[in-house]
Amino acid sequence: MVLKLKWLATAGILAASIGAAQAQEKLKVGIMVTLSGPSAVLGQQARDGFQLAVRQLGGKLGGVETEVVVVDDELKPDVAVTKVRGMIERDQVNFVVGPIFSNVLQAIHKPVVESNAFLISPNAGTSNFAGAQCNPNFFVTSYQNDQNHEVLGKYAQDKGFKRVFLMTPNYQAGRDSMAGFKRHFKGEVVAELYTPLGQLDFSAELAQIAAARPDALFTFMPGGMGVNLVRQYRQAGLANIPFLSAFTVDESTLPAQQDAALGFFGGANWAPNMDNPQSKAFVAAYEAAFNSVPGTYAMQAYDAALLIDAAIKGAGGKVSDRNAVRAGLRKADFKSLRGDFKMGLNGFPIQDFYLVQAAKRPDGKFQTEIREKVFDDYVDVYAKDCKPTN
Amino acid sequence: MTLSLFLVQTLNGLQFGILLFFIAAGLTLVFGVMDFINLAHGVQYMIGAYLAAMFTALTGNFFFGLMLALPSALLFGLLLEFLIFRHLYARDHLDQVLATFGIIIFLNQAVKVVWGAAPLSVPVPEVLSGTVVLMDGLLYPVYRLALIGSGLAIALLLYILVSYTRIGMLVRAGASNAPMVSALGVDISRLFMVVFGFGAMLAGFAGAMVAPILSVEPGMGDNLLILTFVVIVIGGIGSIRGAFIAALLVGLVDTLGRIFGPFLLRLIMDPSAASQTGRALAPMLIYILMAAVLFFRPAGLFPVRK
After folding, report:
1. Which residues does chain A have with pLDDT short of 50?
2. Which of A81, A292, B12, B100 supports an S-S bond with B39, CB 3.0-4.6 Å?
3. CA A274, CA A293: separation in Å to the nearest integer?
4. Mean pLDDT across B169-190
């Protein structure tokens, strides 16, 4: 009898709590980014950018009380899948925001888009999910992976460079990078040099570049590889050969590259000196809170938070009304930090791309700065293969 | 392809070989004398680099930083030996691999907690910051030449130490037959500690020396560790001379093979196939070298007499 009473009481409490939840919906967002290993800086920027937005909005997205769960994917696809399932099933998140790296995206895409959550990528944007495998529950606030490389190829072509030397790490993203560059560059490719992934000493490659005397170097060396390449390139006296790069000279590597990177070029959809009020306020707030210059990783995650905010608002705060939320995500009715921003039919942004250049600010910190617009309202080349199902 | 380019690339290969030698020297002693597989040796290289970065930032001078980093790396190595490794000598190799692998993971995360995840950089010391022109359009940093010079000096020093001193004699004897050395009244655990501390310091020295040219970051020793094992296997486990020759060999084969392999392949196949094959073949070269050496000399180039 006593036991029965206890059960009844528990059931009563449960019912009450469910009732309360229905009365006021709560929003749960799971952030899955890389927070350990050599690339942890990128994940930290994304996490900090997202949380800054939530904090500025008073802990609410779209006016709904928001709880943020942060998880480290360890840059391991298998670990990421297990952890993302945990977020969906145990934590019951409404949105998964992540990841940073494309190989992790390939792994977590299916489990998330087939669940009750939306997947918002603040960085990785692979070609397959932009084209034939596009999905109505998947949105990207960054770019399609090829685009940043295309910026440099287009720039090299417009600038009239005749002979360009290409060098990337020997893995899928490196080969994609060269393909992206060559999409708009029609001049002569002097050499395509592949280095082992993780190589830190480029003295042998630099000698090859010096011997080839190209008009420009195009490279894609993320993280520690980029830090080393830039410093050694400068030490070797090659800085008179224009250094065009993607994900090599940015706010995650500049603190270590410092003066060595000055004047080197990159391609991006935004830079901290972007001239609009919301971007200026964001950079100031980010620097005050985290004492470092935000890069595109932070900007894109911040925009992801604003996108969710706008979508929930559009759905009248009804988190559970998935169709309304999806319509809001498509509409993307928010003031992006990069100004011009539209959501394409494939869930990838339509935006402008710029040639950026590493510079030193008066306060001694380093940042990339916009030099010229290379693409206007640029739609990725895979979008035409996307046939939205609903 | 000109002769000067070839010479510059040879110099690059030499420099890579010297770097491998610094790490391999300690590893081959620890493995050869103590029969102890220390996967954490690469982490000690990383610790050396971090210590150099920290002390250089504190003192504002690379050489002061290096002088402080060396004893600190030594102390850190001895601390690890005292706390962990000492208890593993009698265990079998699998236990040693598991425990030292755990240390890699632990210390890679620990440096991130202490120094942050972002890579650190150390400025090249003023006196060595000059460059020389070895080839048209390419400045070769004097610092890299100094690195090669210091490597040759250390190799000579080690040779004298191992061949002509009492402690060197004990080390050689230990590599041949440790129980017999112990039976002759030598305090073998003290000898082990000296060898271990010395190996840790050499790895730390390598880390400190590369800090001005490479970025200092968590896990920077992990890739090198595998190559270092290749070096000591090729050279003959326990042999300093073998480690030196093998390190230079691996450095040269890796660098020259990677750069000139595709050119050579182009002589026998069409350019796109050559570049494809070269790209796939280059990372394999040193392992092919190792397989070839082991086929003809299963105990390495300079095996220690047992």
Report:
1. 1, 16-23, 390
2. B100
3. 13
4. 85
- Size of the A and B interface in Cβ pairs below 8 Å: 103
Phi, psi of B203 (to 5 degrees): -60, -40
Write down the pLDDT at residue B277: 78
Instruction: Determine contact: A172 vs chain B, CB below 8 A.
Output: no
Q: How far is CA B24 from CA A276, B86, B108, B241, in A?
A: 55, 21, 20, 11
Please judge whether A256 and B121 are an interchain contact, meaning their C-beta atoms are less than 8 angstroms apart. yes
pLDDT at position A74: 87
Closest chain B residue to A38 measured between Cα atoms? Answer: B218
Q: Is B12 on the interface with A (CB under 8 A)?
A: yes
Confidence of residue B131 (pLDDT cuts 50, 70, 90): confident
Residues of B in contact with A213 (CB under 8 A): 137
pTM listed for this prediction: 0.82
> Chain A residue with minimal CA distance to B211?
A228
Residues 6 or more apart in contact with residue B211 via CB below 8 angstroms: B49, B52, B53, B56, B121, B122
Q: What residue segments make up the domains of chain B, in order of their start? A: 3-296
Distance from CA of B160 to the nearest CA of A (A): 31
* Pairwise CA distance, residues A326 & A328, whole Å: 5
Distances, alpha carbon A228 to alpha carbons A225, A233, A357, in Å: 5, 8, 18
pLDDT, position A285: 97
Chain B residue numbers with beta carbons less than 8 Å from the beta carbon of A224 are 119, 215, 217, 220
Does ipTM exceed 0.85? no
CATH assignment of A146-268, given 3.10.350.10, 3.20.20.70, 3.40.50.2300, 3.40.50.1000?
3.40.50.2300
CATH superfamily of A26-143+275-350: Response regulator (3.40.50.2300)
User: What residues of chain A, 180 to 239, have a C-beta less than 8 Å from chain B?
Assistant: 192, 194-196, 198, 200-201, 203-208, 210-211, 213, 223-224, 227-228, 231-232, 235-238
Task: Measure in Å the smallest separation between the Cα of B218 and chain A Cα atoms.
Answer: 6
